[in-house]
Amino acid sequence: MSKVSRFDINAKRLWDIYSEKLRPIERAFLFNLQCSELHKADFFDESYPGMMIGPEPTTDTFSFIVKGKKNSIIPGTTLALDNTKPFRFLNQFGQNFLLRSNGITLNNPLLDSICIVDTPGILAGEAQEHRGYDYKNVVKILATKTERIIVIFDTLKLNVSEELGLSLELLKDHKNKFTIVLNKADQVPPMSLINVYGALLWTLSKTLNTPEIVNIHVGSFWDHPLKYSNYRDYFEEERKSFFNSLQTIPSSATVRKIEYLIGRSKSLTIHALLLCSIKHNIGMFGGDKKKAKLVKNLHKIATNVSKKYGISDFEFPDIEKLKMHLNFIKKEELPSSRGHILKNISKIVLQDLKPILPTINEATGSKIDDAMKSSVFFNNSSLLDELLNKMNVEGEDDWIVAKKKLETDELFAKLNPNKGLVPKEAVKDEFVSTKLPETVFTKIWNLSKLENRQPYFDEWEFAIFWYLVDCKLNDQELPSKLPENMIPSDFYKQGEPGLYEATDAEDKTTYAGYTEY
Description:
By secondary structure, the protein is of the alpha/beta class. Helices cover about 50% and strands about 10% of the residues. Strand 7, helix 6 and strand 8 form a beta-alpha-beta unit. Helix 12 packs antiparallel against helix 14. The protein is elongated.
């Protein structure tokens, strides 16, 4: 089996894992408020972007270079609308950006398994502020989707302009993706080349704030005759090394996709903890005003979640942005805490994603870098697993009537149940002592009914009834239908929760679509 087909198989496996297992959890916890859903094109179409930055002052266009049967140019607006290509995310940068971008198809074997993104020429002074779009945001987002960042320096122009410095500053978190090219090395004498090389190392170490720069390729990457040919053999070896490194992009990109899905899984978990904390604090009878107050104080909720689960502050999403989105979400749309669902994320990481790594080793004929596995993949998965194991599956996952049932079981026994059931009249006789009106009795009775056994209560319904009575005595509004966390787990297994609605009619009971008089 060819290497390319191996990568296709892995891409399909990753897409299946995401679309069938992870995406439903994302939808359940409104993860789209933080991250847009991934599409099939994000996994297929041989889309392993790399980004080139070069000093071309006459160019102000982002070019996305992909494999095609013939050479052609695709306008940026058209490229961003193509569902078969992984470039739909470009729409978020606005129309001005799309007008300054295009797609280029070339029939070149190098593009069989990679895509190249050629960025605009680097500008000096304040010119970069007048591009017409948010250049900083474009660079940051492209960097997260990029497998390799190629920065090309000219031996005759080593100075780091203001915009290049800004770009490198934005990219410093992706230093492991960097490949540095010192181009036109034949234009300086051999001894001067050593000085130029040293100056480049010093410049980059200062700009990127790192003592060591890896992957520097020295050569003259053009077809012109060499001015100084002393290093001809060396340049040729560097050229081969550079293009060989490009050929490893598909395999390393698969690993990085796995890493991305793990990181996304952890972000999903943290996002879910925040939303479930809001829902839990709203309580059963809290309204949108309480929700708005909690959203306003989302920073405090994040601090509590951070302390409870040992999550670093740097791992939380943009709280202000999340607050803005949550303002448009109704209380009913917020997800209830479902720890057992979140714990499925750990299974996805350890049982579905991890086994793919050996197939990548087999396809490439070499092992994935051990340091990468230990520092990124295994660490992230174990941290995620640890976080999920810390989660206390309490709150709305537990039956909140459980404590009340311990009290009501004794009263239930005193009413001499027949075959585990007590009659409505016996319950009403006990209810009289609350001094609540009979209309309230009828409404709570209707809410508490879980089974078609009119007019009787079993011990579970009896407990729910008195729990709701206590709520009413504490001046809490009764819900219009029985909340999910008041329905015992056994009833979840038998049918859909939340179908039991109350009615104010004196002798009419409505439940699960069934009416009895």
